[in-house]
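Structure ticket #2291
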Amino acid sequence: MAKITKKRKEALAKHDLTKTYALADAIQIVKDITFTKFDASVDIDVRLGVDPRKANQMVRGIVTLPHGTGRVKRVLALVTPDKEEEAKTAGADHVGLDEYIQKIKDGWTDIDVIITMPSVMPKIGALGRILGPRGLMPNPKTGTVTMDVAKAIEDVKAGKIDFKVDKHGIIHSSIAKTSFTNDKISDNIKELVQTIIKLKPTAAKGTYVKSIYLSSTMSPGVQIDAKSVTLQ
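Resolution: structure written out below.
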């Protein structure tokens, strides 16, 4: 049997694993059971009553969190020369085209988001096997393939995230840092969950939001009473 560490015992003693908590209480509990020496991420898992294997029940979208995620995202802008200055001014960390495509082919993926243009996508298509598994492939549905390169970069830097239900029907996302105030964490959670609710597929039957769990880096999960988030 695996040994339970002292910190985990302390965490488990501060909340009941069988109980659901109102949003405000859940946020405070997560803070109380976080013992990392760094500013931990606050993560949310939303289990939906959908069958992701069916195309008409896929849930995917984008949302700009009102207070950002607390994480500085590294942006690569793969653009034509006439768009390079625009991308740099908007805050892209790396700007270019062919040289970066070659770097990626050579194994470089030290970035969080790639922004590009429709005319460049044929060149990027060959990178699918590298970028796809890492969630880095640009996609018009997430706003990362666009002619308005500057706005796309600014949105990402401001806290825009994209989310997608996994094969188990769960949406997982980092939505804050534990150093955020409780109110800011709450605002971010509500914005994400309300966005997910708006995307409910018409083919989904029964309870849509089945459960919501909140946790931080290396902490146990705390179940939130969904009504305290969805009934606003």
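Closing remark: The chain has a mean pLDDT of 90.
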